[in-house]
Amino acid sequence: MCFLCFRLYPKANVTRLGPWAHFNCSFSCSFILDPRDPLFLQIGALYLSQVVKLFGTDHIYNTDTFNEMTPPSSDPDYLSAISRSVFASMTAVDPDAVWLMQGWLFFSDPNFWKPVQIQSLLHGVPLGRMIVLDLFAEADPVFTYTESFYGQPFIWCMLHNFGGNNGFFGTVESINSGPFKAQNFPNSTLVGIGLTPEGIEQNPVIYELMSELAWRKEPVNLAKWVSLYAVRRYGGMHDSLTAAWKLLFSSVYNCTVPHYVNHNHSPLVRRPSFRLRTDLWYDPADLFEAWKLFMEAAPSFMSKETFQYDLVDVTRQVLQVLTASFYQDIADAFGNKKMAELLTAGGVLVYDLFPELDRLLSSNQNFLLGTWLERAQSKALNEKEAQLYDMNARNQITLWGPSGEILDYANKEWGGLIEDYYAQRWGLFVQTLVECLDHGLPFNQSSFNQAVFQIEKGFIYNGRKYPTKPQGDTYEIAYRIFLKYYPQAMKRLLQTVKGSPSSPSSAFP
């Protein structure tokens, strides 16, 4: 299309931007027609008039000109001219147009977007005719250091999740107070609150809390709110469940680490190496106790779909934490050249924990790889298209790019994916370490990356049909896992408390 533009309008003022997220220019490096070029207004008005013709209008138009892309110039006059021209293309079609823009660019590239650059871009549009989404306000609000977006209205948004990852996470204190702090901010231009997750089918309690706050005039009492949440969610009162949710809300769902980004970095869902993160923002003892309380209540609540989901989810979270512990055991054993310990930790992880996790996830409709793939294929008009959609659906949750450009960004913990993707990678990692010890060789990460890439790419093209219906009894599987792994979890906690040779860093992340 750009070459056509050059051919038809050889004097058009077109600039090519840089690459995005490790993708080369075959997949990125967008061309941008300078909004000050008269052609920009012409094309913009033609496009928007067709949009209005087809869909009607509510007078609000979303445009994100430089989202995660650096503008060609930081000159304030240039930036004001850019936003002025973009807005002019809107008002040429709709005199009542309001520009809706993500404020993510200011957060993601603070080295470029200094106060003068931000103000210049925002003030190219008349005050009140632009609404800015403060996209990640629960962790890094932009309104606080831009004088409430220099007078432009904004919406306080909870982003919460990157990549649609599974994994418990929340910042309930920040969520509970943030919108009201924004409302009471000096000269506040707040006009609403919103939800902006990259994926929403996880951590339902966080989205229920955030949605309810839209109707509140002040923060809720979190302990009371989550107690009532347990009753609403399961349709009945149970002391164990009330206690479990209070524990979760005060720990894993209350991250207070400044600027923390919820992007599941568990070794479970990351390509194996000796550089993986194992840190937690909460005490795992609270998670394990909540797990025990869920198991106590399970016989009385297994008929409730919401409880079934939560039992799978809390057990999944426990096994995710234990994966990090076994990973640390593997790293310690290799570093200390202890073959027996390496075989034990690696064997438990690859041949028991991962298979059990896969069986658990496969027992619930909400954690199936097959459902994701079936939905992608269902949009196809023919078999060739179905294969393309299947490949892209697999690629997005694994390599995301032909060569893993943003590897594991959209990682998921689903039945089928654990068995055929994550477990296979970890199996190769343990096997490689065993061979290194056996032959007295150092571990070579580059060589391993080349080998494991074949497993990752192989999953994308394996052609396997994955179940779209749950298999197995969730309670039986969860109870079996509890009997095996709860004592291990308690033992590791005890080692941490006593400061035994298994130090806190190796007993638990």
TrEMBL record:
Using the record's annotation, list all stretches that form the Alpha-N-acetylglucosaminidase tim-barrel domain: 7-217
The Alpha-N-acetylglucosaminidase C-terminal domain extends over: 225-484
Q: Which superkingdom?
A: Eukaryota
Q: What InterPro entries has UniProt attached to this entry?
A: NAGLU (IPR007781), NAGLU_C (IPR024732), NAGLU_tim-barrel (IPR024733)
Q: Which PANTHER family match?
A: ALPHA-N-ACETYLGLUCOSAMINIDASE (PTHR12872)
According to UniProt, the name of this protein is Alpha-N-acetylglucosaminidase
Q: What is the lineage of its organism?
A: Eukaryota, Metazoa, Chordata, Craniata, Vertebrata
